[in-house]
């Protein structure tokens, strides 16, 4: 079971009767140490969400580890050791912005794929979605049928 930190979230307006699909809190902002702890604790967690701060601190950590890859043997061990948690972190970040895990395959497109994934990583967290509750208790937007819109003339 992946460990998710517990943080106090500010109160927010929610849609009456809406229940998020998971009872796992979104952890909002985390510092460098907490992000690295989550990076390795959620080693193979491809199911939940990762906040922007968790993703970018993890990105910094993997970049710093990448600088050690020029050392023979040690670099190979480091790169193999952080490969799966990096993929899991990226998938959780995609979940946080409401996208499915299959978007990670965009990274296979030379140059453009990496740029697209980086643009996605900068997007803000969305509200509650199928991968867990939103960062501040935001409810998912509810669709209103076009004939029940306040601007739609009743017939």
Characterization of the model:
The protein is an all-alpha fold and 155 residues long. It has four helices and no strands. The model is unreliable at 8-15 and 17-25 (pLDDT under 50). The protein has helices spanning 32-41, 52-66, 74-96, 112-122.
Write the layout of secondary structure elements.
Elements: H1 32-41, H2 52-66, H3 74-96, H4 112-122
Count of beta strands = 0
Radius of gyration: 19 Å
Helix % is 25-40%
Low-pLDDT runs: 8-15, 17-25
Report the structural category.
mainly alpha
N-to-C span: 53 Å
Question: What's the pLDDT, averaged over the residues?
Answer: 78
What is the succession of H and E elements?
HHHH
> What is the percentage of strand-forming residues?
under 5%
What labels would you give this structure?
155 residues; mainly alpha; globular
Describe this structure in a few short sentences.
This protein is mainly α and 155 residues long. It has helices at residues 32-41, 52-66, 74-96, 112-122. The longest helix has 23 residues, at 74-96.
